[in-house]
Amino acid sequence: MPTQKDIIEKDKKHLWHHLTQHQVFENQDPKVFVEATGARIRDIEGREYLDGASGGVWCVNVGYGRESIAKAVYDQLVQLPYYAGVAGTVPAAEYAEQLAELLPDMDHVYFSNSGSEANEKAFKMVRQIAHLQGSGKQKILYRDRDYHGTTIACLAAAGQQERREEYGPYPEGFASIPHALCYRCPFGKSYPN
């Protein structure tokens, strides 16, 4: 069985950490997490943290260690783990109906694996609609300081220069507009003017 040191060395040698400058690992070890329950997560050294990043921001919104969810996932993995989006599945059709009932005037759902993938699809959808309507419109507007994901197109629509600067050039057709923030108005105005 690998030791704690072995795992940390494997991490340093082989993993590319999301949104991380890896030279930091020359002087310190990366965080390696081993278990979690509810909103708490424990690292390889036994330290416990309240998870305000992965859980709330990305994909563990209902907490870790939910046995009812694990069982439902297991049951579906045994029955039909995946089928490409070119056809439907029973759970997808049923869940899409539930979402459509909650969203007035929206009756179609596109499922994706991440926010980046969802935004990529949204960019394609609006451009396809504009093309089919013959409008000639192609620009995607984004606000300063906005975050939309980490794919190249999502970074093209990101208003956070610190996330963009190392990855260009970007695809054309994305335009920045000021963030709607009256408290620090980019036009030097004050509310309600």
TrEMBL record:
Q: Which InterPro entries match?
A: Aminotrans_3 (IPR005814), PyrdxlP-dep_Trfase (IPR015424), PyrdxlP-dep_Trfase_major (IPR015421), PyrdxlP-dep_Trfase_small (IPR015422)
The record ties this protein, via SUPFAM superfamilies, to: PLP-dependent transferases
* Signal sequence bounds: none
Molecular function in Gene Ontology: pyridoxal phosphate binding; transaminase activity
- This protein's record includes keyword Zinc-finger: no
What family does the database annotate? Belongs to the class-III pyridoxal-phosphate-dependent aminotransferase family.
- What is the protein name stated in its UniProt record? Aminotransferase class III-fold pyridoxal phosphate-dependent enzyme
